[in-house]
Fold:
Amino acid sequence: MAKVTSFEDGRTAVTMAAESEHEPRRFKVYTDKNIDKIEKLDLLDDETVFNMKVVSSVLPFRVNEYMINDVIDWNRVPDDPLYQLTFPQRDMLPPELFDEMAELHRRGADKKEIKAKARELRTRLNPHPAGQVEMNLPEDDEGEVIDGLQHKYRETVLFFPSAGQTCHSYCTFCFRWAQFVGDDEFRIAQDDAAKMQSYLATNKQVSDLLVTGGDPMIMKTRKLREYLEPLTRPGYEHIQTVRIGTKALSFWPYRFVTDKDADDVLALMRELVASGKHVAVMAHYNHPNELDTDIAREAIRRVRETGAEIRSQGPLLRNINDDPEAWTRMWNEQVRLGIIPYYMFVERDTGAKNYFEVPLVRAWEIYREAIQNVSGLGRTARGPSMSAGPGKVEIQGVTEIKGEKVIVLRFIQGRNPDWVQRPFFAKYDPEATWLDQLEPAFGEKEFFFEAEYRQMCEDARTWMQGKKLV
Structure:
């Protein structure tokens, strides 16, 4: 079926919507409210299901039937990586927090009491890491803070559309878990497309818009079009790249194949590409098994046909993918399917981090062994990278300099662009799991960026007090 797209400057684009051999599928989801209706849980013992209920009353839980029936291998549970990715486990909460919530469940506390306890416990899980609610807040021309936008790095603005603040399933490790717990105090979101577009129009240094969430692909295409189509018009030439962060290619690939507006979302991508934008689908993958179904591969094929590229990223996670062979297999298969490996992240210091975190030295060893076993096209994957307060910090390796064993690091991205690509060195520490646990090498009192970053934090606090945001 031919589709003709007309642009304001008189250009037209003709695209073909490919027919799919796959049957449409009804989207059915389970949360903590109807967890007992998941038939597969009958395979598990009562204590395991009880633990799930306790953890899911604090951390968000949501899983759909495609993941349950087509992706998870229940013969391998609890060791199946996709089961670990989507179903709560007891140790995802620190023991003291688990015990506090479990006591309420055991004595049959009412929903109001459980909700109040959950809110208290969540504040102890660092719900907004890396200064994202203190330091990344942009203002409009009148000096008002624009909700739902984050502007941490000069070239890139993050947009959190209100209609996209959920996902087809939730990742148990998610560093944005606070978006999904139903508490507006924790939530970052914006429904006014014009505010986002106005900010972009007046900030010519911005070249990249990242639409994120949640998952923007949970939205109907007509809503996504409302946000993105205006960027094809005059005044937005400086916006070179539109990035769409999504897990839909693995959690609900039907979004791009048989959903009612699957062809519409692909047409929107084609229109953005035809207008001269670079469209990058930032696909979140955590294990090669997510690529194994026919529908997942068909979704990848259809997205690539639009002229958009797919880049893959995801964190290194204990209990899921802390194995170089898994990363090698995933990156090799992604390259075969036309996906560009982009990032291996370090699990952020929030939520269930204690369950998933891997020491930085071990993370680098896993990355190094995995990257040694892929071709040059797979070595586009950067990492392991920490998205920390000062910026994205990559662990480059372990070496010895003048008799001292050190960890070599560099900024891939920084709050100050001058920090980028500057190597720096930390004392060797095989147990450290995050930037703030590392100490400078060679007797230095602090890393080169720390004084400037402290001042940035202080300036942000002063600014927030002036805006009466604290």
Observations:
- The longest strand covers residues 391-401.
- Residues 7-18 have pLDDT under 50 and may be disordered.
- The CA atoms of residues 298 and 311 lie 16 Å apart.
- Residues 450-466 form the longest helix (17 residues).
